From TrEMBL:
Species of the source: Citrus clementina
Domain AMP-dependent synthetase/ligase: 20-407
GO molecular function: ligase activity
Record keywords: Ligase
Gene3D superfamilies according to UniProt: 3.30.300.30, N-terminal domain of ligase-like
This protein's name: AMP-dependent synthetase/ligase domain-containing protein
A Pfam entry, by short name: AMP-binding_C
The AMP-binding enzyme C-terminal domain, residue ranges: 446-523
Alphabetized CDD domains for the sequence: ttLC_FACS_AEE21_like
Keyword Ligase set for record: yes
Stated family: Belongs to the ATP-dependent AMP-binding enzyme family.
Phylogenetic lineage: Eukaryota, Viridiplantae, Streptophyta, Embryophyta, Tracheophyta
Length: 544
């Protein structure tokens, strides 16, 4: 068989960009995007993306260039997931809640050639650009106006000042709908640049190739069993790891993308009823939001919700599912382009009590079908830890959706977890979040899970506080539910934990805050809380 070799017919570079072309053929007259009163079909979305790519190419955007987008979940950012790579360029989404200094640093680090800016972020990005050193060329800015909004900012959104070269819609209008998009020369060509959310350190530039995004997109659809033509509500920011690759996934299955500029629990329920939403994704903070809405009624039809990020507490999962949401849980990183671990559900678990089902579902699970290998190893020996649900180790990955690497950087984060006897992974912490108290490795996640079972607790985060005797002890930061008539005291919270945890895991300090600091994707900023705990000084707790 030596004469049988790869050829042009069987070795085309893998890329998810072709999903849009197919969607226009198969689902051409079906809705692709719904945003306020605006509705596009898949034929229209395909044409608009080609027109935008044509205009970008005409102004010099080409293979290898980075084009940045600063926008919430609106049609423009969805179209950018196809149109920018259509030119051969690299898409770089930047979260809208960063400060001007950080955005400036990211634009400089990425050497961005052009920035598409939502009108509500115009002042922020203009300030970011003004912070560029004089010897670094500033990228042109394109203003994304919004004709469908009716808020007080809308009038100003239609005005293009001297800081912007043109509007987004003018680029789309001027473009050629017959533009021949530029296919990757090699499936390893860079396609995406994402910056990590910076929950534990400074953001890093993660680079993904066409092949990795293709693998991740197909894997995500298979693992979540997404059917044809779902109605997908965008409660997960597309600037967060490209919405876990579902912008391309919805094109593959001809889904309807219901876009939301901003949302809260009431808006989510309204959109579900109005559009017949079937699927949505979000960090555990979204689950907490929808399950804590006062007077919320169970759904008429079930809605599949996929959650990941921080491990969701079992109590939050239980409350969410009691309202009619079908929760799936997974784990991934910006570095893996999406979720590569999922809590693959076993039918026999349906016979368990509801609270036990929620506990099982809070585990991250097993590798997804397209991923190669996931393990938990001892960082010193490099060997796998015992599958006993207790032996902590570093989580390691191998698979087709792993990043090409960090842009201009080589170092990366470490995450800590255990493997249960049934082979299912459970995250215990990021390595920086493990608390070492009296020589014992203490998982802050386990303490947080207990705190979330307290009916008064809205949000919980546990970090290390320096201790004169133990070295470190757990310090709990809590926000309480707004509707409480009587708020618990620090002593009552400590006693609650003492009845449910080993003594060394019980928080020695409890701090109440109106709201815990979060990243743009809803992850609690533990590095800020660690600094707060450190600033309190060493605790002087009596020996246990």
């Amino acid at each position: 068989m030596d004469e049988l070799k790869p050829c042009t017919a069987n070795s085309s570079p893998l890329t998810p960009l072709g999903f849009l072309e197919r969607a226009a053929t198969v689902y051409g007259d079906c809705p692709s995007i719904i945003y306020n009163n605006l509705i596009y079909t898949w034929s229209q979305t395909h044409r608009r993306c080609l027109q935008l790519a044509s205009s970008l190419s005409s102004i010099g955007i080409t293979r290898g260039h980075v084009v940045s987008v600063v926008a919430p979940n609106i049609p423009a950012i969805y179209e950018a997931h196809f149109a920018i790579p259509f030119t051969g360029a690299i898409l770089n989404n930047i979260n809208t809640r960063l400060d001007a200094r950080t955005i400036s640093l990211l634009l400089q680090h990425s050497e961005s050639k052009l920035v598409l800016v939502d009108y509500q972020s115009r002042n922020l990005v203009v300030e970011a650009i003004s912070l560029f050193p004089s010897d670094i060329k500033r990228p042109p800015l394109v203003l994304i106006t919004d004709h469908t909004d009716h808020d007080n900012d809308n009038k100003s959104s239609q005005t293009v000042d001297s800081n912007f070269c043109c509007t987004y819609e003018s680029l789309v209008t001027k473009g050629d709908p017959n533009f021949k998009w530029i296919r990757p020369q090699n499936e390893w060509d860079p396609m995406i640049l994402n910056y990590t959310s910076g929950t534990t350190s400074s953001p890093k530039g993660v680079v993904h190739c066409h092949r990795g995004i293709f693998v991740m997109t197909v894997d995500s659809l298979i693992d979540w069993s997404v059917p044809k033509q779902p109605v997908y509500l965008w409660t997960l920011p597309m600037f967060h790891a490209n919405g876990w690759s579902y912008p391309w996934g919805m094109a593959a299955v001809g889904g309807t993308n219901v876009c939301l500029r901003k949302f809260d629990a009431a808006v989510i329920y309204k959109m579900i009823r109005q559009h017949g939403v079937t699927h949505m994704c979000g960090a555990p903070v979204v689950l907490n939001m929808i399950s804590n809405l006062p007077r919320s009624e169970p759904l008429r039809n079930p809605v599949h919700i996929l959650t990941a990020g921080a491990p969701p507490p079992a109590a939050v999962l239980f409350r969410t599912e009691s309202l009619g949401f079908l929760v799936s849980h997974g784990y991934g990183l910006t570095e893996t382009a999406g979720l590569v671990v999922s809590c693959a559900w076993k039918n026999k678990w349906n016979r368990l009590p509801a609270t036990e089902r929620a506990r099982m579902k809070s585990r991250q699970g097993v590798r997804t079908v397209c991923f190669t290998e996931i393990d938990v190893i001892d960082s010193e020996s490099g060997l796998s830890v015992s599958h006993d649900g207790a032996s902590l180790g570093e989580i390691v990955f191998r698979g087709g959706s792993m990043m090409l690497g960090y842009l201009k950087d080589l170092t990366g984060p470490a995450n800590v977890g255990v493997i249960h006897a049934d082979g299912y992974l459970e995250i215990k912490d990021r390595s920086k979040d493990v608390i070492i108290s009296g020589g014992e490795n203490l998982s802050s996640v386990e303490v947080e899970s207990v705190l979330y079972t307290n009916p008064a607790v809205n949000e919980a985060a546990v970090v290390a506080r320096p201790d004169e005797f133990w070295g470190e002890t757990p310090c709990a930061f809590l926000s309480l539910k707004a509707e409480l008539e009587k708020k618990p005291t620090e002593k009552e919270i400590i006693e609650y934990c003492r009845a449910r945890l080993p003594r060394y895991m019980v928080p020695k300090t409890v701090v109440f805050k109106e709201e815990l600091p979060k990243t743009s994707t809803g992850k609690i900023k533990k590095f800020e809380l660690r600094e707060m705990a450190k600033a309190m000084g060493k605790s002087k707790v009596s020996r246990m």
